Amino acid sequence: MGAVWKKIKSAIKGRIPKHSFEMWIEPLELEKGSNDNWVLACPNFFSKKRVSDLYGKLIKAELKKEIGDACNLSFAVGHKSKPGQPSKNLHNHQLPLLNDSIRPHNGRFFRKDFTFDHFVVGASNDFAYSASLSLASGKERQQNALLLLSKTGMGKSHLSQAIGHHVLSQYPDERVYYVTAEDFSNEMVQAFRQDSIAKFKGKYRNSCDVLLLEDVHYLSGKERTQIELALTLDSLFEAGKRIIFSSCYLPADIPKLNDKLRSRLSCSLISNIEPPNFRTRVRILQKKVILNRYQMPDDVINYLAGELTDDIRQLESGLNGVAAKSSLLAVPIDLNLAESVVKNIVRQRKKITIDLIKKLVCKYYNCSIKDIVSRSRKQSFVRPRQMAIYLSRRYTDAPLQSIGKAFNRYHATALHSIHRIEQGLKENRSIQKQVDFFHQKLESGRF
Fold first, then answer.
1. Most buried among 65, 250, 317, 440, by the most CB within 10 A?
2. What pTM does this model have?
């Protein structure tokens, strides 16, 4: 009967969306199977109810096709046991990960979908795409360093990992290292503590053919790491190795960066990635729909592309949210469903200004606007100022220079303020709560 159940699952797989199959049908196990009575084991009570309501008739119909007669179908919570083995509950049964990653020779894993084939090219990123593909293919050896520049969520990591994928597939003997600037810094500190700095230097200078270094702007203020990285880059440049950086800011705009490293980064081919236009956003959504085997009407795709304009991550969030809500509630995907998802994602960006953020922050910290734009370095003024600058960068389209000017600061100081809050989000629970509070206020429209 196990073979019959496999055939039934295979038939159902071709009739429902991929995400629905993986969520509801794939985890089911055949607990009992005979000519007149079948029992399928579900992971939990919620799954049992959903599968019974959504797919009970479909499974029963496929079952009848396979065995030729109608039979009783029921669902239970649990897991079938092999003879001689104790019974186990599916609550403790872990399914394999759906998105296996690819490991470069050293560093973080690559996402298997972050390839050139899956990257949607448009007017906003065509130069970055061409430069990345050229460097990955080894066609452009006069320029062996590339800096991918954009705001968060525009595709820097996708292109960076696509280069790694391409190199590993075309030149399997090449040693590809994929790390973030923070990883590099932490690894260097650990090497000093363990008295293995010589091994660390040899690893990057002598055993690396392609270095993919993400988020170099996080090196701001880390003088010791900057010196070591600059020396490492000198060795790689002289050896003709390929180097790909990514950053949210131009090298000239990163504060507390030593001149040697700034010069090295500036010598790279700088490729800016702009926010995608409507046409590109539609194509991105269409690509994601195909890859995920969603069934999405064109009017819903156009609606999502028109409303979700911040970045590609927001687009994916909206698309996945619509598909998940449809699957969980067993309702069709239409504009009403899409609107209910989008209203929880879209920020009221047009209503949010730097002046509004100033007022909101000052009210929360019990200080005046005059205080946070003053030259005072009192901590009671510095933290509200940094928070307001961080929120202005996130919730408005104003360039860094304009934000700095609004707070009577240079753009480098504004960038430092943003970095301080971002660092606090990782290390300080209090700052996390404060940022969450402001996010809730701004995104809900309750200013």
1. 317
2. 0.65
